[in-house]
Amino acid sequence: MKQRILAWCLFVLANVAVTPAFAEQVLVAVAANFVPPFREIAMEFEKTTGHQVQVAAGSSGNFFTQIKNGAPFDVFFSADNERPKKLEEEGFGVKESRFTYAFGRLVLWSPDANLVKGEETLRSRTFKRLAMANPKTAPYGVAAMQTMQKLELWESVQPQIVMGENLGQTMGFVESGNAPLGFLALSQVMDPKYKGKGSRWDVPKDLHEPIQQDVVLLKKATENQAAKALMEFMKGPQAKAVIERYGYELH
Questions:
Q1: pLDDT at 12 > cutoff 90
Q2: CB 26 within 8 A of CB 74
Q3: The whole model's pTM is what?
Q4: Which residues on adjacent β-strands are paired with residue 31?
């Protein structure tokens, strides 16, 4: 009997160690370009810590406005560094919590394996529509606009542009055929669903400003242990390996 009781106690203790009593939930606002890798990172984080992650995907600009208007997010993964910096400066973010988690890459992509050849595809103007994210709300939209301005194509291509609210919607335009090609994040086409399919041009980095992507812990989460643990997890080898696998650069 004593042996059975001892065995039961050891079983209970083992399970307490696997499932922490302090497990909490974290609500994360994630820029659309980072959603594919972040879902993998979140799964690893949940398995490792026992905490739970809820993900909201959208554009950095819209999230910035929502956070300032009281949206209940704990952590904000932006596609730029300016918005997290402003949130920190204006008291919406926890001071000195902000850091750069990745540098993004812009690509021109089409599900048609023969369509995208390089910048000459843009110059040819043989496509009916070109999808891109709205520069007002999405940093990758800014990069796409800067690229076309540098190539002196911005004005001439205007009539063919269709804009998505964020990169998720932009990918939707291309995937559905509403636009045969579009400016997207490399991370999106590195998603297993699209990897190796279609045709793409990796836009040279000198055609646009660096896409520096920062994360910030928000004031609402000052006492949220799950949010703090996620911020630390993002600096570790598991998260970094996923980020690099999706085509981002780490500096």
A1: no
A2: yes
A3: 0.87
A4: 58
